[in-house]
Write a structure and sequence with these properties.
By secondary structure, this protein is α/β, with parallel strands linked by helices. It has one domain. The protein has two helices and three strands. The chain has a three-stranded parallel sheet. Helix 1 links the parallel strand 1 and strand 2.
Length: 65
């Protein structure tokens, strides 16, 4: 990823599922913010939205949902 110079794109993250999803999402977010992106809430209409889910959670929902 390149470091941004003249603009600050906004992005939002959401982790759904296990602790691993939350940890991965935090690492991804940190990589983006280190490169100059601004982390915001979804209500601020970010240009990038990352939604990280867990296949384990998906399978549980299929079984019991």
């Amino acid at each position: 990823m390149k470091t941004l110079k003249n603009s600050t794109p906004k992005l939002a993250f959401y982790a759904l599922g296990c602790k691993l999803s939350s940890s991965e999402t935090s690492n991804i977010a940190r990589n983006f913010t280190d490169k100059g992106y601004e982390r915001v809430e979804f209500k601020e209409f970010p240009i990038i939205q990352v939604k990280n889910t867990s296949s384990v959670t998906e399978n549980v929902v299929k079984s019991f949902g």
